[in-house]
């Protein structure tokens, strides 16, 4: 039985090398019981290799995997209390839905009444009792995904691995299915690790996210933490949209810091905490939704946290618009403006070619040292 004070899954110094290529560099990671955890990264980041090592499909070059206190590093895939659901779903086309769900249970030689009971339980869980006799080709993509999930959960694994679980669905169906999948996993209470390259998917479904690049963990945290407080320029640019400016630290005290960014007409003043020395190179990240757009220069802005330019592009996206503002030096700043912003102020919104001013509050610029 797992000690709730200890991580349910412990990954210690795990690495994978293919010849001279280090696909996954030695990493440590703790996953808690009942957690839905996402490995997020682009192609070649090492996330799928890490997942395959957990499943036993790849042998680690070094390191250790502990699940519920048991060392499973060298166990064969079929000896691990782990199930994996693939992007393709891998349903048997000649079997019915209930036969697909029962397949793994029959392989484990469970009693017939136990198999029937679990299949019925899984069909109810994914709300598909009426489809029990159908074959995969008679189901929609979303229904096939639910059958694959039911089959993965039927064996009651200690750990469920999802490889791009919604990747085979179109965008609209993917968005609808995200919450359904989370609700199902939470009902069962299974510990889950999902691999995805889709930021929205990871941020919507997971309680914590690990961002990977070139075989290394770049940051681990809640979706809000990695978005609002990125620890590096890479993470800031990888998660969502942002504006990045390079500069030098002019002065820093316990409450504020002043950064000189040559691309901006004013210095950047921030009250976010970080460690750096005067003169050190600093990158400033400011999200588009944190930058206000004005037709006239704000009276309270003089020496810091403002810029000006001309509207180059406008993307209307329903509830908000993204303004691309080009400064005199050619640099583009993106500002996200809520749809009612101009209407409630009874102001005609700026259009292409108009000169505008931008400003941002002191608590929004995120200083990055790497």
Short descriptors:
alpha+beta; 24% helix; OB fold (Dihydrolipoamide Acetyltransferase, E2P); 6-stranded mixed β-sheet; 2 domains; 370 residues; single chain; Rossmann fold
3D architecture notes:
The chain is an alpha+beta fold. It has 2 domains: 9-233, P-loop containing nucleotide triphosphate hydrolases (Rossmann fold, 3-Layer(aba) Sandwich), CATH 3.40.50; 241-294 and 302-368, Nucleic acid-binding proteins (OB fold (Dihydrolipoamide Acetyltransferase, E2P), Beta Barrel). The protein has 9 helices and 20 strands. It has helices at 47-55, 97-107, 112-125, 141-154, 171-188, 199-205, 223-228, 233-238, 341-344; strands at 9-18, 21-31, 36-40, 62-67, 70-71, 82-85, 159-163, 191-196, 208-213, 216-221, 243-252, 257-260, 268-270, 281-286, 292-294, 306-316, 320-326, 332-338, 355-359, 366-368. It has a 6-stranded mixed β-sheet, with helices on both faces. Strands 13-12-11-14-20 form a 5-stranded antiparallel β-sheet. Helix 2 (97-107) crosses helix 3, helix 2 runs parallel beside helix 4 and helix 3 (112-125) crosses helix 4. The longest helix has 18 residues, at 171-188. It starts with 8 loop residues before the first strand and ends with a strand. The mean pLDDT is 92.
């Amino acid at each position: 039985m797992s000690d709730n004070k200890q991580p349910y899954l412990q990954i210690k110094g795990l690495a994978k090398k293919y010849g001279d290529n280090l696909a996954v560099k030695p990493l440590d990671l703790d996953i808690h019981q009942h957690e839905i955890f996402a490995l997020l990264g682009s192609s070649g980041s090492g996330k799928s290799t890490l997942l395959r090592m957990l499943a036993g499909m790849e042998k680690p070059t070094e390191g250790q995997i502990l699940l519920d206190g048991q060392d499973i590093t060298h166990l064969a895939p079929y000896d691990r209390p782990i199930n994996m659901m693939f992007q393709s779903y891998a349903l048997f086309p000649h079997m019915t839905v209930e036969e697909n769900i029962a397949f793994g249970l029959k392989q484990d030689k469970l009693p017939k009444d136990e198999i029937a009971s679990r299949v019925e339980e899984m069909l109810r869980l994914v709300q598909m009792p009426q489809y029990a006799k159908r074959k995969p080709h008679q189901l929609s993509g979303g229904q096939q995904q639910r059958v694959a999930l039911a089959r993965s959960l039927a064996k009651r694994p200690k750990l469920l691995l999802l490889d791009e679980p919604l990747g085979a669905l179109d965008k609209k169906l993917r968005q609808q299915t995200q919450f359904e999948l989370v609700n199902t996993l939470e009902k069962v209470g299974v510990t889950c690790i999902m691999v995805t390259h889709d930021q929205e998917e990871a941020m919507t479904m997971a309680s914590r996210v690990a961002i990977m690049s070139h075989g290394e963990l770049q940051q681990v945290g809640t979706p809000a933490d990695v978005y609002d407080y990125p620890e590096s320029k890479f993470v800031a640019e990888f998660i969502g949209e942002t504006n990045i400016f390079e500069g030098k630290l002019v002065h820093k005290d316990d409450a504020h810091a002043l950064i000189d960014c040559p691309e901006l007409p004013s210095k950047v003043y921030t009250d976010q905490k970080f460690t750096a020395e005067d003169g050190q190179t600093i990158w400033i990240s400011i999200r588009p939704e944190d930058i206000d757009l004005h037709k006239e220069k704000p009276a309270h802005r003089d020496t810091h946290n403002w810029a000006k330019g001309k509207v180059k592009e406008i993307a209307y996206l329903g509830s908000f618009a993204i303004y691309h503002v080009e400064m005199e030096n050619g640099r583009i700043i993106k500002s996200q403006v809520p749809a009612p912003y101009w209407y409630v102020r009874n102001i005609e919104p700026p259009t292409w070619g108009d000169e505008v001013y931008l400003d941002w509050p002191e608590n929004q610029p995120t200083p990055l040292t790497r």
